Amino acid sequence: VTGRSHFLTGPQRAVLADERALLVDLRGALARLGADEADQATFSQSLRQLDELFLLVVVGEFNAGKSAFVNTLLHAELLPEGVTPTTARITVVRHGDTAGTTVDSGGIAHVTAPVELLRDLHVVDTPGTNAVLREHEAVTTEFVPRADMVLSITSADRPFTESERQFLAGVRDWGKKIVFVVNKVDILEGPAQVEEVLAFVRSNAQALLGTEPMVFPVSVRAARQDRDNETVWEASGMAGVERYIADTLDEGERVRLKLRNPLGVGVRVTGTLREELAGRIDLLREDRHAVEEIERQIDTYARDMARDFEFRWADIEKALLDMERRGHDHFDETIRLGRIKDLLNREKVKRLFEEHVVADTPQRVERKVNELIDWMVGADFQQWHAITERLAERRAAHSDWIGGKLPSTGFLHDRARLVESVGGEAQRVVQAYDRVKEASEIAEKARSSVKTSAAIEVGAAGLGAVIAAVATTAAADITGLAMAGVLATVGLFVIPNRRRQAKAELRQKITAMRQQLGTSLRNAFEDELQRGVARLRQSIEPYARFVRTETEHLQAGRDELDRCLDAMRGLDARIAAL
Ligand SMILES: Nc1nc2c(ncn2[C@@H]2O[C@H](COP(=O)(O)OP(=O)(O)O)[C@@H](O)[C@H]2O)c(=O)[nH]1
Ligand SMILES: [Mg+2]
What global pTM score does this model have? Predict the structure, then answer.
């Protein structure tokens, strides 16, 4: 520290070692967790600063007398005064055995001078808080973060301007120690006016920093009138500032400031990154809600579908059961002695059965089955639409978050691409979904299953025709043909018996048909539902996985940063107690 680390006390050395270890860890974490490049560079720089000389950065508006102040403090005319805002340079003043000035490629002047005070500190003179942008940037991004102490010089005739206040707010955010000098008090009229200006600067500085500020009234001009006169030096206020700087440079305080410097920078860049991670975690929390909602939607969908299927199927079953019941009534009415004539007439038996029992049942069943199939296929389709829409909302969410500008790499990019691709997959399925084909396949399966159960030949006829054929075949078998032979040989006593048998056979045929149709539709439904649900789940799985793993990853990162912040606060307390 400060090039004199062999003078450090034991406790100072212990804190330094702990701090260095912590900050090196933090540097790794910042890189790993994707901190802003500029912040990382600043942090690394301030870490190196631990080994450099104390850096005093002089800031203030153009023409406040900064250069004059530095020249006077160092008792050497090193810096040009009264230059314009555009010709002023950032100037780093260091100790050197000979005086000299060089300007580096960045336009920064490096002045060396054989001045004793410079053995203990470097001074940076800056063009002004209202200087041209390029210089201003360099001061804020390069020199302020490295400063061990910032000396803010304000002119007594325009104290604490808005541009100063804004600039100092930035300095404060780096956790820098700021000391105020009110220069040119010689132009004020008497001590009362000086006091007024000082009070004004104090209250503004207090409001800005939240702590009692150090404010020194100074007249550089007065100090220069007789540089070697102690009384003049004292009266000018320069002596007070000089003493304060010397005290600050006192080993203990200097080491404290030095050790604190990278901590302030570390806390700031860590805080920034932590906020960034927290923002991502928030975004992912909404994503997780969306995923959970979609998963819930799929569950509800599967449950609702199963329930609705039972309702719809019960309705179809009822039509078949009604036909069966009508058949029983019909047999009760027709298979009796008084109707023997009719019974022996095959054509009439068939016609009556068709009229009274079969009626429009086949058409109704066919229509209901088709409706059921359309519903199965259509509900799935709607579900895809719902998910596609939900994902479109999530796609929009990140553009809100970062103002519509999508980065080309990194977390936001990955997330956006994933939501995009899942959404695209859903979209593709919706578009490629051939409802007509899907529905006609299921209908064909239902039809052929019923056909097979009845073992009848009806060619390419629809489900309704198959059902009609099954029903009437049953009637024809039972009544017409069977009755003729039975009555001729056995006589009247068998009628009740034949009636029972006819009913039993009708029940058996219709039940078989009902079961076949039911099984076929239920199988198709379950297939369809399972396939649909699996496809829905699969489509959101990559998104869900990303949200899960990335959340864990980000939370771990945030926790790590929190631990670093705690450790830095702990170190800060130890430094204060040194
Ligand atoms: N009246 C008065 N003028 C001063 C004082 N200090 C500096 N000046 C003048 O203020 C002008 C600007 O000084 P300079 O050091 O170049 O200001 P800078 O832009 O902040 O570096 C110069 O003309 C100085 O002579 C002071 O204490 N009193
Ligand atoms: Mg200047």
Answer: 0.62
